UniProtKB/TrEMBL annotation:
(S)-2,3,4,5-tetrahydrodipicolinate binds at residues 133, 142-143. Belongs to the DapB family. The keyword Oxidoreductase applies. Residues 103-236 form the Dihydrodipicolinate reductase C-terminal domain. HAMAP family: DapB (MF_00102). Its EC number is 1.17.1.8. It catalyses: (S)-2,3,4,5-tetrahydrodipicolinate + NAD(+) + H2O = (2S,4S)-4-hydroxy-2,3,4,5-tetrahydrodipicolinate + NADH + H(+); (S)-2,3,4,5-tetrahydrodipicolinate + NADP(+) + H2O = (2S,4S)-4-hydroxy-2,3,4,5-tetrahydrodipicolinate + NADPH + H(+). GO terms for cellular component: cytosol. This is 4-hydroxy-tetrahydrodipicolinate reductase. It comes from Psychroflexus salis. Residues 1-100 form the Dihydrodipicolinate reductase N-terminal domain. It is found in: Cytoplasm. The keyword NAD applies. GO terms for biological process: diaminopimelate biosynthetic process; lysine biosynthetic process via diaminopimelate.
Length: 241
């Protein structure tokens, strides 16, 4: 596949390495300069890992050009619905995931199952904590928001999530975000009662898991003939079916 990288920072560069190992070609390495439309038009698929304020424009430009696009950029989801509508109108192909790593997608499943199990045990309250490197632009992380939304789907006590955690009322799921140099991404959920604590945690040791998942999703979307908005769950079904 000829891949356009929209965003050539920490993730763009890691994705490049994995894509080359998988025999793909990089036709565009786009950074914060005006989009190189000529090179983009030459791509089979685009992978956006940029910054919150650039993601909408990057994705919609790809949809306008009929290029399948996957996005891992976080912090722009107030415009997700608009992108879904545009994907429908343009009969395009699009995937967003707050986290493309296999490990975190397994952790998403574990989180939902634990939330289901705990929903009727009112003596436990939930805390969510994420830790990332100090260059991260958004807080809380996209992954933390996905985890919180899945808990809210199961547990009627929580009607929204709140960041920072110390401002949460009893019906808001508190999210704590810490920034520590070089941390790739840690997410922890704790169910606390006066008697005990039950915790689950995912720790990313490198960015390779995010990048491999993104390249696999791009390969999957490129080979998908039907237009639509897809999820990482759809991609992973292919491997577990
Ligand atoms: N979904 C997932 O699995 C994961 C998601 N992420 C998310 O991916 C995003 C990128 O992360 P990361 O690589 O660490 O961040 P970096 O800051 O390292 O890289 C961001 C890149 O985007 C570039 N950029 C800025 N404006 C534009 C634009 N208009 N068009 C294209 N590129 C632009 C920057 O260019 P310049 O250097 O010139 O400023 C920079 O190269 C973040 O939102 C992060 O949360 C990260 C890891 C995993
Ligand atoms: O910015 C990062 O680095 C990461 N961002 C994603 C998020 O916001 O959830 C995924 C991963 O945790 C790394």
């Amino acid at each position: 596949m000829r891949i356009a990288l929209l965003g050539y920072g920490k993730m763009g560069k890691t994705i490049e390495q994995i894509a080359l190992q998988r025999k793909h070609t990089i036709v565009l390495k786009q950074s914060a300069t005006p989009m190189d439309i000529t090179k983009l038009q030459n791509a089979d698929v685009a992978i956006d890992f940029s910054i919150p304020k650039a993601a909408f424009n990057n994705i919609s430009t790809c949809l306008d050009l009929n290029i399948p696009v996957i996005s891992g950029t976080t912090g722009w989801l107030d415009q997700y619905h608009e992108i879904c509508e545009l994907t429908k109108t343009k009969k395009g192909r699009f995937i967003y995931a707050s986290n493309f790593s296999l490990g975190v997608n397994l952790f998403f499943e574990l989180n939902s199952k634990l939330a289901q199990l705990m929903a009727n045990f009112k003596e436990y309250s939930v805390d969510l904590e994420e830790i990332h490197h100090t260059e991260k632009l958004d807080a809380p992380s996209g992954t933390a928001i996905t985890l919180a939304e899945a808990i809210m789907d199961e547990n009627e006590r929580y009607i929204s999530w709140k960041y920072p955690a110390n401002e949460a009322n009893k019906n808001q799921l508190p999210i704590e975000a810490k920034r520590i140099e070089d941390v790739k991404g840690t997410h922890q959920i704790a169910y606390k009662s006066n008697i005990d604590t039950i915790e689950i945690k995912h720790t990313a040791h490198t960015r390779d898991g995010f990048a491999l998942g993104a390249v696999i999703a791009a390969e999957w979307l490129y080979n998908k003939s039907n237009p639509g908005v897809y999820l990482m769950k759809d991609v992973l079904k292919t491997f577990t079916a």
